[in-house]
Amino acid sequence: MKHAVIAVLVAVATLLPLAGQAAKHVAAVHAGAQASATAGPLVEAQVKKVSKASGKVTLSHGPIPNLGMGGMTMAFKLKDPAWIDQFKEGDRIRFVADEVKGDLTVMSFELVR
After folding, report:
1. Can you give the pTM of this predicted structure?
2. Out of 12, 16, 66, 92, which could bridge 112 as a Cys pair, Cβ 3.0 to 4.6 Å?
């Protein structure tokens, strides 16, 4: 019995540091996946419609790889509703999109002049 307890203690002492390293690795991979999802690629688009009532902009955009979407025309919410005043129909933009609480959302953008 005494030898079994010692064997278990030695095994725990040996494996415990490895478990901590594995947990750190999993957390780092998860954080990297979240960062890449929100940082996403800049996507070229043209503003087709601005709806202040709904707080959405309709964009004709190229492929959005981080969302697995091809190019199409669709409406997006804005991360910051105050941005709506910065959009005009016909504007060309580059933007980053992500899914937030089930809504496709413009996370950041820049006007192309």
Report:
1. 0.66
2. 92
